[in-house]
Amino acid sequence: MEEKWWQRSVVYQIYPRSFQDSDGDGIGDLPGITSRLAYIRELGADTIWLSPVYKSPNDDNGYDISDYQDIMTEFGTMADFDAMLEKAHSLGLKIVMDLVVNHTSDEHKWFIESRSSRDNPYRDYYIWREGKNGKEPNNWGSCFGGSAWVYDEKTDMYYLHLFSKKQPDLNWDNPVVRDEVFTMMDWWLDKGIDGFRMDVISLISKPEGLPDGEPRPNGYASFELCANGPHEHEYLREMNRKVLSKHDLLTVGECAGVTLEEAKSYANLDGSELSMVFQFEHMSADFDPVLGRYAAQHKNLPKLKEILSRWQRELDGVAWNSLYWDNHDQPRVVSRYGSENEEYREKSAKMLAACLHMMQGTPYVYQGEELGMTNYPWTSIDQINDIESLGNYRDFHAKGLMTEEEGIRMMRTRSRDNARTPMQWDAGPSAGFTTGTPWLPVNPNHVTINAAEQLQRPDSVFRFYQKLIRLRKEMDVIVHGHYALLEPEHPDLFVYTRTLGNESLLVVCNFSEQEQAFAVPEEYRGAEILIANYPDTAPAGVVRPWETVVYHRK
Ligand code: ISL
Is 254 marked active-site? Predict the structure, then answer.
C-alpha cells in the first residue's frame, strides 16, 4: 500500500487560548500563533492541529461554537486566520482544524430558532423530547456532571446536551443537519486547510429510542453509551463521500468510547472513513475503579502496556493509530507517569517521549510537552476554570464521595486546566506568554522550564523531541515496523521491538526511579544506539532510573 503523507507526520497541537498573546489581553490569539510558527518548524512537526478558533461564548473555551464561519473575538479576525494559514503553508506546515459538530453553542442561530417554537423549521436540528412523569426523558448524565437534559419552559420540552447546558447536541439523524455541516466543511476546505480533528465524533449517532443506561456513582448513566451508535459509520461514510474524498486530508476522529473493533472501521486503511482515531483506552489505565477519571491515579504499567500493545498489534496493516500522551483535556504526562523531581524530570520526559514516538502511528505533541511541562500546583477550587473537573467535583462532593481537600488534590492530578496554563516561552514575567494578566495562572516553574532556555541547550527535552521527529522522517522501521511487546508483566519496564524486514529496533523504557535489572537480548548487544537519555551507557544488565535506550539493528 502506498504511504499516506500523514503516516510519516508528527502533529503539534495548539490550544490557542494559552499559546501566545499578541495584544496584552491575557488571552492567546491568532497573530500570536503566527509569530511562533517558526518555533514549530524548528521542532520538526509538519502539521498543526488548532483547537477551536471559531466564534464562541466560551462556556467550554471554544468547544461551544456560535458561528462556524467566524473567528472568536479575542483571537482576532478572519484576516488574521488567513494570514496565519498563508504563513504556515509558506513554512511547509499544514493546518488541521477542530471540527465540533456533535453540538453547537446554545447561542448558535440554529438553536435560537430551534428553541423558539415546536414547529420552527430548525426544531429538528436538535434533540427535543417530552419529559417522563415530570422528570427528564431518561437517566443520561452530562460529561460535565449532572443530567444531560435541560427543561425548556417556552415549549415545555427537554433538549439533550451530552456536554454543558450551553452545548445542545445536534440531531445527525436529520439529513438537513448533515448537509449543513458538510457545506460548512467545504467552505473551510476551499480556504485550503489540510484536515479536521473531529470532536467527539463517535457520539453523533444516538442509540435508538434513547434508552436508560447503567447509572454511575453520581446517579447518571455515562454519556459514552452514545458511542459508536447505529448510524455512526453510515454518517461518516457519507461525509467522506461528499466532502473528505475530494481532498488529500488528515482526518482524526476523537472517539470517546471507541473499541478496537470499531477503530478498524473508523480508521480503515481503505480510506472510506477517517485517517485515524484518538482512542481513550490507554488514558483510562490509571483511573479509579469507582470514581473513574476524577479521583486519585492508580499507576498500573502492565495494564497500560497491555492496552497500547493490543492497539499496536491489531491495527497493524488494517487501520492507522494515533499516538498521544497529552492534549488539552489531559493532565501533563510528566506529572502522570514521569517525575516532577528536579533530578529526574527531564529524564522522565524524554523516556516518555521515546516510548510513544517509537510506536507505529502518527504522534501528537501538545504545546509544552516538548519542554516537559508539568501540572500546576492548584491550592483552591476557586482557581479552576475547567467546566469538566468542576462539574464532576460538584457531583461527587454533593454525594459525599469527595471532600474539598480531596477535590483540590484531584484537581492537581486530573483537571484539564493542568494542560491549559500558558505556554512557557521564557523565564520572564508571565513566561513570555502575555504582557497582561494571563487568563489562567502561569506555572511558577517557568523560570526553569521554558523554551528559550531549552533552545540553547543541546541536551534539552526540546532537542530530544526534535531528534525523535527527525528519526521518524528518516526511518521506515519507525513508520511501518511491526510491534512486539517484551516483559508484559514487568511492573516498571516497558520494552518492545519494531521490525521491518531485516531491520529492527529495541526500545527500553524505565517507568521508575529505581534501577531495574534487564538483560538486553543477545541480538541487540553491541547494536547501534539510536537515541538515549543518559550521556553514557549503563553497566550490562541494568536500566537506570527513568532511562530510555533505543537500539537499532540492521
Ligand atoms: O477526555 C475526556 C474524558 O476522559 C473528556 O475530558 C472530554 O471532555 C471528552 O473526551 C470530549 O472532549 C472533547 O469534547 C468536549 C470538549 O470539552 C473537549 O475539550 C474536547 O476535546 C466537548 O466539546
Answer: yes
Q: Whose CA is nearest to atom 4 of ligand 1?
A: 293
- Between the CA of 507 and the centroid of ligand 1 the distance, in Å, is 31
Distance 453 CA to ligand 1 centre (A): 32
CATH superfamily to which 1-100+321-332+345-351+362-376+420-474 belongs: Glycosidases (3.20.20.80)
Q: What is the mean pLDDT of the chain?
A: 97
Is 60 close to ligand 1, i.e. is its CB under 6 Å away?
yes
Does ligand 1 have an atom closer than 6 angstroms to the CB of 64?
A: no
End-to-end CA distance of the chain: 23
CATH topology for 478-553 is: Immunoglobulin-like (2.60.40)
Whether 1-100+321-332+345-351+362-376+420-474 and 109-160 share one fold: the answer is no
- Chain segment 8-55, per-residue pLDDT in tens: 999 999 999 999 999 999 999 999 999 999 999 999 999 999 999 999
* Domain 176-320, CATH class in plain words: alpha beta
CA distance 211 to 213: 6
Strand partners, 11: 47, 364
Count CA atoms closer than 13 A to 360's CA, side-chain side. 26
- 388 Cα: distance to centroid of ligand 1 (angstroms): 8
- Is residue 74 part of the annotated active site? The answer reads no
pLDDT band at 290 (very low <50, low <70, confident <90, very high): confident
CA 39 to chain CA centroid, Å, is: 21
Q: How far is CA 305 from the centre of its chain?
A: 19
Residue tagged active-site, from 199, 286, 346, 369: 199
Q: What is the pLDDT of residues 356-366, one digit of tens each?
A: 999 999 999 99
Q: Give the tens place of pLDDT for each residue, 323-367.
A: 999 999 999 999 999 999 999 999 999 999 999 999 999 999 999
